[in-house]
Write a structure and sequence with these properties.
The chain is α+β, with helices and mostly antiparallel strands and 796 residues long. The protein has 36 helices and nine strands. Strands 1, 4, 5, 6, 7, 8 and 9 form a seven-stranded antiparallel beta sheet that branches. Strands 2-3 form a two-stranded antiparallel sheet. A hairpin with a 6-residue loop joins strand 6 and strand 7. Helix 1 packs antiparallel against helix 3, helix 9 packs parallel to helix 11 and helix 13 packs parallel to helix 15. It is extended. Its main location: membrane. Keywords: Membrane, Protein transport, Transport.
Length: 796
C-alpha cells in the first residue's frame, strides 16, 4: 500500500501546528492533530513533528490529550531528550481535579518506557496508589509493574510492596486483581505473591465480584495455597463448586485445575469434579470459535487418559464436520479412538471409514491409523475396512493402510493371514517412501505365504538405481534376504544383483555397510542367516494385546491442565512415560523358587528373608505405560540370568479374562495381553510399578520398581514339572529342619498342601515374576496382592 504522504505533507503539518490562527481554533487544531495520527498509522515518518506535538499536549481537551499522548508514546524512544519536555506537563496533569486526566497522565507517563525518566515517575505512582478514584489506583498499580519490567535489576521499595499488599483489600475488584498481577511480576524471584489463609479466604469471598479474566487470575494464584485442615478444604471446595458449571470456559478451566490441585490426595473428589465439568467442556468442544474448540479437545484428551469412560455417552459430539479445519478433525479422531467400546464400535468405525477419503491427506491418514488402533481389539471389522481401502487405488490412502497393517501385525501376528490375503494380488506402484518401506517389510515377513513376493521385490530391485531413499534401500535388503531364506530358487539371482549394486555402487554408507554385513553373513551359512534375521519375532501368536493404555493418575497431568502445554504436545503424548528411561537398579544373578497355599493365600518361601510381607509402605501404581514391544524386550533381557523369579500355585479364576483384567486394574496391576479362554496353553502377561515410602530402616529400598509377571495354565507337563521341583525343594528344607529338631513332620504336611494334589496342575495357575531390583520383599508383597485377587476371582 503506498504511503499517503511524504516530506511535503510533514512540512505542511508543521506549519499548521505552528500557526497561531489554527491554535486558537480548537476544532481546526484537533483536526490537524488527527491528520498527524492518521499519517502515523499509515506508516509515514512524522517524528519531525515531536516538538510541535509536545506543545499541543498543554490543553484541557481530553480528546486532544489522548491523541497527543498516542503520538508521544510512539516516538519517545526516537526522541529521548525531547521527551523530558513532556514530563512537566504529565506531572501537572497527575494533580488535575479530573480523575480521567490523572489516570491518563499516569498511564502515558509509564508508557514512555524510558529508563532515564523513571525517577520522575515514582512519586506520581506512589501518590496514585492512595488516590480516591479507582481508575487512578488501577493505573498506578500496573505502573509499578511496568517500572519493574523496565528496570528488572532495581528493587522496588518495600513500602511500595506493602502498599500493594494492602490494596489486595481494595473495594474495587479490578484494583485487587491488578495488585495480584503486579505482585506476581515484582516478586517473581521470591516465588510470587505470598498467599496465606486470610488472603486466600478474602480472594475466595470476592471471587464473584471479578470479571472473567479477573476470576481466572485469582484462581491461578490460589494454586499455591494449601488448606490446613480437611474442614477448610471442603469449605473452599463448596465455594468453588458453582464455578465448575460456569458457561465461561476460562473460569471453568481455572476452577477445575484448582480442584485437581487441592484434591490431589482425594481421587474420588477429583473424579467428581471432572464429571461436573463435563458439560462445559463438551460445550466448549462445540464452540463457534475454532481456537476454543481445539483447546477444549486437547484438554478432553487429557481427561480421558485418567477417565476413559467420562465422555463415552457423548461420542457423537466428536464427529467431524465437513467445513472444520484439519487440525480439529484430527483431534476429534483421536478422541473417538479413546471412546470406542463394545456398544459403539460399529458406529464409530463407519464414521471413521468416511473420514478415510477426506480431501485432506493428513486427516485421511489419521483416520486410517485410528482404525488400526481399534483393530487391536476388534480385528474382524477393522481388517475388512483396511483391506477394502486398498481397492480405492489412491496413493496416500494405500500408503497409510500399508503402514497401519504393518504396525498391526507387528503387535498382533495372528492377523498375518488376513494381511497376506489382501496383498496376494498386489500390482500398485507406490511413490511414498513410508508406504514403500511398509510394503517391503510385509513382503519380507510374509514372503513365504505371498506367491507374488519375489516378483514385487524384483521390480524394486530393477529400479534401485533410481531410488533416492536410504530407508527404502535398507528395507529392500532385509526383505530380499528374508524371502531368499524361504524361496531361494526364485530370489537368488536378484539378491546377487542387489548386493552387488549396494556394495560397489551405492554412495550411502549405511546402505553399503548393511549390504556388506549381509554378504559376509551369507558366507557364514544359511542357518546363521536364519538365526539372525528370524530370531527377533518372538511374539506369541495366541496373544491378543488389549487396546489403549491403563488409566493414568490424575496427578500426572493435573499440573499442565489449563496451560499451553497440551496444545503444544498435541495431548496424545503429553505425560507419557518411556519405560526405557526407568532407572536400572542392580540385578541379582540367581532365582529363588516360592510356593503358596491357595487356601491361606500366604506364600511359603524357601529363603528365610522372604517372609510374610510387612508394612513397609509399598503401593502399586501404573505411573509409566508399557507397550507390548517394550514388555517383550524387558522380559527377554531377564533371560540372560540376572533376574528374580518366583513360582506360586493359585487356583484358576472362574471369571472371564476381561473380568480378571478389571479386577487387577483396581489394585493397579495392568493386563497387557492374554490368550483366548478356549485355547491352551492359556497365558496372561501383567506389569506394575511398586513404590516404597523411604524410612530410616529401609533407606536402600528403591522408590520405584518395575515388576513383570506371566500367568500360565499349562494343564500338562509344564506345571507338573515345576511342581515336582517345588516338592523337591520343600523336601530338602524339611530334612534340614528335622535335623535341627524343629518339627519336620508338621512342616511336611503344611508344605505338601501348598503344592496341590495329584491332578497334574490342570486346575491351577503358574505365576512367574521378574523385577528390576534386588529387594526380595518387593516381589513378595506384589505376590501377596496378586494371589489375593486370583483367589477372590476364583471364589466369585
Amino acid at each position: 500500500m503506498p504511503y499517503l504522504g511524504g516530506e511535503e505533507t510533514v512540512r505542511e503539518l508543521r506549519r499548521a501546528l505552528s500557526n497561531p490562527h489554527i491554535q486558537t481554533d480548537h476544532l481546526r487544531y484537533r483536526n490537524t492533530i488527527h491528520r498527524v495520527i492518521r499519517l502515523m498509522s499509515q506508516g509515514v515518518d512524522v517524528s519531525g513533528l515531536f516538538s510541535e506535538m509536545v506543545k499541543a499536549c498543554a490543553t484541557g481537551d481530553i480528546v486532544q490529550k489522548k491523541l497527543v499522548y498516542v503520538f508521544l508514546c510512539s516516538y519517545a524512544s526516537v526522541n529521548p531528550e525531547l521527551s523530558l519536555l513532556v514530563i512537566n506537563t504529565l506531572r501537572k496533569d497527575c494533580s488535575d481535579p479530573n480523575p480521567m486526566v490523572r489516570s491518563l497522565a499516569l498511564r502515558n507517563m509509564c508508557n514512555l518506557r524510558l529508563p532515564g525518566l523513571c525517577e520522575y515517575v515514582e512519586q506520581p505512582l506512589t501518590a496514585g496508589l492512595k488516590d480516591k478514584a479507582a481508575c487512578v489506583r488501577r493505573v498506578a498499580v500496573l505502573g509499578w509493574a511496568k517500572i519493574h519490567a523496565l528496570l528488572p535489576n532495581t528493587e522496588i521499595d518495600a513500602a511500595v510492596v506493602n502498599e500493594l499488599y494492602g490494596l489486595l483489600r481494595d473495594p474495587d475488584p479490578v484494583v485487587m486483581v491488578n495488585c495480584l498481577r503486579a505482585l506476581e511480576e515484582i516478586l517473581e524471584e521470591e516465588g510470587g505473591v505470598a498467599i496465606n489463609k486470610p488472603i486466600a479466604h478474602h480472594l475466595l469471598n470476592r471471587l464473584k465480584e471479578c470479571d472473567v479474566w479477573g476470576q481466572s487470575e485469582v484462581l491461578s494464584v490460589l494454586q499455591r495455597y494449601r488448606p490446613r485442615s480437611e474442614d477448610e478444604l471442603f469449605d473452599i471446595l463448596s465455594l468453588l463448586d458453582p464455578a465448575l458449571l460456569s458457561h465461561h470456559v476460562p473460569i471453568m478451566a481455572a476452577t477445575l485445575r484448582l480442584f485437581l490441585s487441592l484434591c490431589s490426595m482425594l481421587p474420588a473428589v477429583c473424579v467428581s469434579a471432572l464429571e461436573r465439568a463435563r458439560g462445559p467442556l463438551l460445550a466448549a468442544a462445540g464452540s463457534s470459535s475454532r481456537e476454543l474448540r481445539y483447546a477444549a479437545l486437547c484438554h478432553i484428551q487429557l481427561l480421558l487418559r485418567s477417565e476413559p469412560g467420562l465422555m463415552g455417552e457423548h461420542y457423537k459430539r466428536f464427529y467431524c464436520g465437513y467445513a472444520e479445519p484439519p487440525y480439529i478433525k484430527q483431534s476429534k479422531i483421536q478422541v473417538l479412538v479413546e471412546l470406542v467400546n463394545d456398544d459403539n464400535v460399529a458406529v464409530v468405525l463407519d464414521e471413521l471409514k468416511g473420514y478415510c477419503t477426506d480431501v485432506n491427506t493428513e486427516t485421511s491418514q489419521a483416520a486410517i491409523n485410528a482404525i488400526g488402533s481399534i483393530g487391536r481389539s476388534y480385528d474382524d471389522r477393522c481388517l475388512g475396512i483396511l483391506t477394502g481401502l486398498l481397492e480405492l487405488k489412491q496413493e496416500h490412502i494405500t500408503s497409510a493402510v500399508l503402514q497401519t497393517l504393518r504396525d498391526l501385525v507387528w503387535v498382533s501376528p495372528q492377523y498375518g493371514d488376513a494381511v497376506c490375503s489382501a496383498l496376494e494380488k498386489w500390482e500398485d506402484q507406490l511413490q511414498d517412501t513410508q508406504g514403500r518401506g511398509a510394503l517391503l517389510w510385509l513382503l519380507g515377513v510374509y514372503g513365504d505365504r505371498l506367491s507374488g513376493a519375489p516378483y514385487i521385490l524384483e521390480d524394486f530391485i530393477d529400479g534401485v538405481r533410481s531410488e533416492v531413499s536410504a530407508e527404502v534401500k535398507t528395507e529392500l535388503l532385509t526383505a530380499t534376504l528374508r524371502v531368499f531364506l524361504s524361496r531361494p530358487a526364485e530370489t537368488q539371482d536378484m539378491m546377487g544383483r542387489l548386493l552387488q549394486h549396494c556394495i560397489e555402487e551405492e554412495l550411502d554408507m549405511c546402505v553399503r555397510d548393511q549390504a556388506l554385513l549381509y554378504y559376509r553373513l551369507l558366507h557364514c551359512g544359511i542357518e546363521d542367516v536364519r538365526r539372525v534375521l528370524q530370531c527377533g519375532r518372538r511374539s506369541d501368536l495366541s496373544l491378543g494385546p488389549l487396546i489403549g493404555r491403563p488409566p493414568e493418575p490424575i496427578s500426572q497431568w493435573a499440573s499442565i491442565f489449563n496451560t499451553l502445554e497440551p496444545l503444544m504436545l498435541g495431548a496424545s503424548s503429553a505425560g507419557n512415560s518411556d519405560p526405557s528411561t526407568l532407572t536400572p537398579y542392580t540385578l541379582t544373578s540367581h532365582s529363588e523358587p516360592m510356593t503358596s497355599d491357595p487356601h491361606l493365600m500366604t506364600p511359603k518361601l524357601k529363603d528365610p528373608d522372604l517372609t510374610a510381607p510387612a508394612c513397609s509402605g509399598q503401593c502399586l501404581s501404573l505411573s509409566s505405560t508399557l507397550s507390548p514391544e517394550e514388555f517383550e524386550r524387558l522380559w527377554l533381557q531377564t533371560e540372560k540370568g540376572e533376574f528374580l523369579e518366583a513360582y506360586v500355585m493359585c487356583p484358576v479364576p472362574r471369571c472371564s479374562p476381561e473380568s480378571l483384567q478389571v479386577a487387577l486394574q483396581l489394585v493397579n496391576i495392568q493386563t497387557l495381553a492374554f490368550t483366548a479362554p478356549n485355547k491352551l496353553p492359556w497365558k496372561m502377561y501383567l506389569y506394575t510399578h511398586s513404590s516404597h515410602t523411604l524410612t530410616p530402616h529401609s533407606s536402600t529400598t528403591p522408590p520405584n520398581t518395575l515388576i513383570l509377571a506371566e500367568v500360565l495354565q499349562a494343564g500338562g507337563d509344564g506345571v507338573k514339572k515345576v511342581k515336582e521341583e517345588l516338592i523337591e525343594d520343600q523336601e530338602n528344607e524339611r530334612e534340614e529342619s528335622v535335623k535341627e529338631g524343629e518339627g519336620g513332620e508338621e512342616r511336611r504336611g503344611e508344605m505338601s498342601g501348598g503344592v496341590g494334589g495329584e491332578d497334574g496342575g490342570k486346575g491351577e495357575l503358574l505365576v512367574r515374576m521378574r523385577q528390576y531390583t534386588g529387594e526380595k520383599t518387593t516381589l513378595t508383597e506384589f505376590l501377596s496382592v496378586l494371589t489375593t485377587v486370583l483367589n477372590a476371582q476364583h471364589t466369585a
